TrEMBL record:
<feature type="domain" description="HTH merR-type">
    <location>
        <begin position="1"/>
        <end position="62"/>
    </location>
</feature>
<protein>
    <submittedName>
        <fullName>Heavy metal-responsive transcriptional regulator</fullName>
    </submittedName>
</protein>
<dbReference type="InterPro" id="IPR000551">
    <property type="entry name" value="MerR-type_HTH_dom"/>
</dbReference>
<dbReference type="Pfam" id="PF13411">
    <property type="entry name" value="MerR_1"/>
</dbReference>
<dbReference type="InterPro" id="IPR009061">
    <property type="entry name" value="DNA-bd_dom_put_sf"/>
</dbReference>
<dbReference type="GO" id="GO:0003677">
    <property type="term" value="F:DNA binding"/>
</dbReference>
<dbReference type="GO" id="GO:0003700">
    <property type="term" value="F:DNA-binding transcription factor activity"/>
</dbReference>
<keyword id="KW-0238">DNA-binding</keyword>
<dbReference type="InterPro" id="IPR047057">
    <property type="entry name" value="MerR_fam"/>
</dbReference>
Amino acid sequence: MRIGDAAAAAGTTPRALRFYEQRGLLPPPTRTPSGQREYGPGEVARVRAIRQLLAAGLTVDDLVSRAHRFDLLDEDPPRRCCAADSGPETFAPVVSARLAALDAEITRLTSLRNKLARLAATGDTDEPDED
C-alpha cells in the first residue's frame, strides 16, 4: 500500500512515516518503479507498535536506541521486550531510565506547585523551600 494508505491504517500521517524512516525506526520501504514508497502489513504493525510505545511515555530517542531490537515485535506471538530479565539489549533499561526521569520530573513539578500554592496563599516569596 502507498504511504497515505499505510499511514491511515496505522493511525498516523505520511509525514510521521517518513520521520520514523529517517530516524531508523522503520526500514526503508520498497519503492515502485516511479519511486513511491510501498508498505506492507508488517510495516503498519510496526508503526502501530511505535505509536503505542510513544503513547506510553517513551521518546523517539528512546526508541531509536533500541530500533535494532524491533524484531522482537515481529515474532508471532510477540515476545515481551520490556521484561526486566530480558537483558541489556531489550527495552528494559530504556524503560527504567524513562521511569526515573519521570519520577524526577514529578518531584520537581510537585515542589514547584507547592511554592506557587504558598505564594498564592500568603503572597510571600521568601518562605523556605519544602523538599
